[in-house]
Amino acid sequence: MLNNKSKNIIFYVTFAVVFFILTLWFSAIPIKNIAHVLPSGGDPLLVTYIWSWEMHQIPINPLELFNANIFAPFKNTLAFSEHMLGSLLLAWPLFLIFKNIVLVFNLVSLGSFAISGLGMYLLANYLTKNKLASLVAAFIYAFAPFKIEHLEHINLSGMWLPYFFLCLERFFESQTWRNVLLLTLFISLVFLNAMQYFLFLPIIIVIFLIKHILCKTFKIAKDNVYKILTSAIILAVIIIPLSIPYLNFKKDFDFQRDLRTIEGLSPDLFDYFINPAIYKFYYYPSAFLQERIVGPGIFVIILLIISIYLIYKKSININKLLVYFLTGFLAVLFSFGYYIQLTTADFGGMIGPWAFFYNYIPGFSGIRAPGRLSIFFLISSCLFIATAVAYLLNNKIKKKYYRYLFIFAAVLFLFIEFSVISFKKYMPIPSKHALVYDWVKEQKDANIYLEMPLGINYLEQDYDKLYEFASINHFKKTVNGYSGYAPKEYEQLNNELTHFDMSDIQPIKDYGATDIIFHFDFYSENFKKTTLEKLSKENSVELIYNIDNDYVFQIK
C-alpha cells in the first residue's frame, strides 16, 4: 500500500502532466515541429538568446554577465531587458539534455502553465481544504486569457506567485525555519523570474503583516527576528548584485518609461469585462493593444461576482480573504497606470497610486505595461471563487455525483471560453545557421560587427532579432540588438542606415564598428550589384570574407 506522501506525489505529477497536455491545446503549438518553431515575434528569440548567453558566460566569467555581446560598443546591455535567470534554472538542465534551445523554450513555456496550475491548486487547497474547488481555481489561473496571450513571455507566467502566497500564509501561521526558508526561496524565484512582479511583493507582505498584527496572530519574538534577518541577508545577497546593473542602466541612460507610452499600454476598467471572443476585433489590430488584455473572461467575472456576494452574505473566511481582496483591488488600481480611467475615451483621469510609485520608488518607472500587474487580481479572483465553490460543495451539494457534475460543468464552461481566443501563430526556426557565423566565431574578440540590413522597423521587419538569435553561434560583439530598450545613438544609426550608401561608412566607423556584414539575401539583386561595385572602389573598406550571399567588409 502506498503511504499518503507517495499518493500525493503521484497526484501532483499526474496533475502537472494533465495540465501540460491541456497547454498543448491552448497554445496551439504544432507538436510535430515543437523543436523547430517559436511563437511569432521577437521576444521568444530574445529569451532564447538571453538563456544562451547566460549558459555561455556564467561558466566563463559571471562577473561579466551583464556585458552581453549585443548593442556593442555599449556595456551592461543585458540590463536592457530582464535577465531571465529564474527561467534559466529550468532551461539549463533541459538544454543539457536536448541540446536544442528552441525545444527548450517551448518546453519551459508549456511547463510554466503546469507549474502555475499546480501552485494555485496547492494555495487554494490550503485555504479551502477542498480539492475540487481548488481544481477550478487552478484551471482559471493556469489558462486565463492573460496567461495564454503572454505564453511567449515566460517571465510573465507568474508560475512562482501562488507558491509565494502559500509560503507567506504558512509563515504567518508558524515561523518555523522551514517556512521562513521556503518563503525566502519563492521570493527569490519571483525576483529572478519577473522583476516587475517582485516590485509588488513588498506591498503584499505589508498587507499581510498589518492584518496579522491587528488580529494579534503574529508577534515579533526574538527567535523570529533571527529568522527574518537570516532571510533578509539571503535575499540581499541575491537581489543586490542583480539590481546594481539595472540601477546603473537607469543612471547611465537617464532611463524611465514615458508616461504617454505607459498610458497607451495601460488598460481601463472596461478592459476587465471584454470577452475573449472579441479580442481579435478589439485588441489585435495593434500589437501594443494586446498589453491591455487583463480580463479573466466573462464566465470568471460572473463566478467572481457571485462568489463575493456569497462570501459576504455567509461571512465565509472573511478574515483570510480580506488580504486577497486588498491585493486584488490594489492590483487593479496599479494596472490602470498613472491615471485611473473607466474607458479609453477618458482623457487623463484621477491620478492613481501608480503615480506615487512611478515618481518615488525605484523600479516602477521602468515598467512599460502596468496592466501586467493584473495577474495579482487574477490570483485573488481564483481564491474567492475557490472559497465560494468549496462552500457550495460542503454545504449545498450533498451528493458526490452532483459535486463532480458541478465541477465538470464549471471547468467545461471555462474551457470553452478560454478556447475562443485566437490561437498563437508560430514561426519556423531554421535548424542550420548561416555559414558566415562559423567564420565570425574564429575572429578576434575585439572586433565589432554591424550586420546589414539594420532593424529598419521593429514591428514589421526587424532583422536585429534574427542577428541576435544567430549570435548564439559565436557571441562576438555586434552593433545590432533586440531588447526592451535600445540606446538613442543606436536608433539614430538605424535611421541613417535605412538607405545605405557610401557616405554611411564613416558614421559606422565613428559608432565603433570594425566590420560590416551584408546579408544580401535580404536585399534586391540590383542593390547587391550596385553596392558591391561601389564598395570595391571605396578605400575605407576591404572585402575580407564571402560565403554564400554574405559579404564581410573590414573598415580601415
Automatic annotation (TrEMBL):
Transmembrane segments: 9-31, 90-123, 132-148, 180-213, 225-247, 293-312, 321-340, 373-393, 405-423
Superkingdom of origin organism: Bacteria
InterPro entries: STSV1_Orf64
Keyword Cytoplasm belongs to the record: no
Coiled-coil intervals, chain numbering: none
Keywords associated with the record: Membrane, Transmembrane, Transmembrane helix
Name of this protein: Glycosyltransferase RgtA/B/C/D-like domain-containing protein
Record organism: Candidatus Kuenenbacteria bacterium RIFCSPHIGHO2_02_FULL_39_13
Lineage: Bacteria, Candidatus Kueneniibacteriota
